[in-house]
Amino acid sequence: MEAGIVGLPNVGKSTLFNALTKAGALAANYPFATIEPNVGVVPIPDDRLEVIRKHIESQKIVPAMLRLVDIAGIVKGASEGAGLGNKFLSHIREVDAILQVVRCFTKAPGGEDITHVEGTVDPLRDIEIINTELVLADLETVSGSVGKAERAAKSGEKENIARFHLLKKLEPVLNAGKPARSLKVDDPEETRVMKSLSLITSKKVLYVLNVDEDDVNGVGPLAQRVREHAAKEGSECVAVCAKIESELAELSDADRLEMLQSMGMTEPALARLARQAYHLLGLQSYYTAGPKEIRAWTVPIGSTAPQAAGVIHTDFERGFIRAEIYTVADLEKFKTEKAIKEAGKMRIEGKDYVMHDADVCHFLFNV
Questions:
Q1: pLDDT tens, residue by residue, 177-230
Q2: Quick check: 170 and 141 in contact, CB under 8 A?
């Protein structure tokens, strides 16, 4: 799973990235601090991994991972070359979702002002600027492809015809300032073409509300305005205080827990952000467990057992025979796989089985 972090300069993108990836020193307080994209891989907190290890001895735990791509701050007029322009947007065209960091804080922790590229703090204006620039970048891509697609469609090939028809539908949508995801696409061939276009505004958006230290749950007026906006467009939100997260990232487990409790928080922002990202993308986790490792694997909701096996290795999907499956709850109740089998809770599932969240699997295959 991969997410691209976007936002205006000085909204806390790089602070958040560094906190989540424990990447070290925070970015300087000036526009375009992130010229080249920063890429980090973040483990997703999952209590169920420890539950499994409590009952199955293993050398290591391997959590699911979220890959983050942090690009330069986007400014108004980027599509026309302002700031660094939009050339860096190519770095996030292949991601699965967009994390748009929105400034909902007013002052730095020390009370000093942090420069806002637009002069004032207005999260809805900031969202409109970012969304407009992303739409314009996609419009440039689509408009530049229509002519070539029209010529290719004359070949009569199904995919070429679908591409041309889809581009013609997308162009007026983007021209109207709407994201590509607002276009309802039902045709399977056009759905495949849409995915291949890698349009930024075709991806789902999670608004990350960078809030003040005294509003860690994002209930203040600035954050509430973003929540209302997101609800109207069918997007999701998660509140984060990037400054607090950067401090938490540097602490030991014990000190981190103490700091969280002192602030009335139950977990760092990464856990909330990861769950929201999972929900946004329609993903779930299943597990494999053995003496060498206990590992979480990420699959789309609705995946079949062979498709889930293919996440481990393509040979597993190609030669899939069956899967032995139980749940983390079963393991917690019966303590051992042997006891799970004796209780009749170890299921044998075939190629048509649809995976469930928290399944623990042993795959049998032959190639």
A1: 999 999 999 889 999 999 999 999 999 999 999 999 888 889 999 999 999 999
A2: no
What tokens appear for 100 in the block?
A: 């748009």
C-alpha span between 139 and 263 (Å, rounded): 44
Dihedral angle sign, alpha carbons of residues 179, 181, 187, 189: positive
* DSSP letters spanning 40-97: EEEEPP-HHHHHHHHHS--SEEE--EEEEEE-PPP-TTGGGT-TTTTGGGGGGTT-SE
Q: Nearest 10 degrees: CA dihedral of 243, 244, 247, 250?
A: -110
What's the Cα-to-Cα distance from 148 to each of 141, 142, 161, 194, 198, rounded to whole Å?
Answer: 12, 11, 11, 16, 17
Q: What share of the chain is helix, strand, coil (3-state, %, to 5)?
A: 45, 20, 35
207-224 burial: b if 16+ Cβ within 10 Å, else e: bbbbbbeebbebebebbe
Sheet containing 293-300, strands listed edge to edge, beginning at the edge strand earlier in sequence: 60-62, 293-300, 283-289, 359-365, 320-327, 347-349
Judge whether 237 and 272 are in contact, CB under 8 Å. no
> pLDDT tens across 255-309, in order?
989 999 888 888 887 778 877 887 888 899 999 999 999 999 999 999 999 999 9
Evaluate whether 187 touches 82 at the Cβ level (below 8 Å): no
In a 13 Å sphere around the CA of 271, the CA atoms on its Cβ side amount to 10
Looking at this protein, which amino acid is placed at residue 53?
A: R
Q: Quick one: tokens of 222?
A: 């600035």
For the whole model, what pTM was predicted?
Answer: 0.82
**DSSP secondary structure string, 199-233?**
-GGGSEEEEEEEE-TT-TT--SHHHHHHHHHHHHH
Rounded Cα distance between 24 and 216, Å, is 22
Main-chain dihedrals φ then ψ at residue 166, nearest 5 degrees: -65, -45
Query: Which of 336, 293, 337 lies closest to 312 in space, CA to CA?
Result: 293
Residues 343 and 286: their CA atoms lie apart, in Å, by 21
**Token match 């053995």: residue?**
290
How would you classify the pairing of strands 293-300 and 97-104? unpaired
Q: How far apart are CA 140 and CA 185, in angstroms?
A: 20
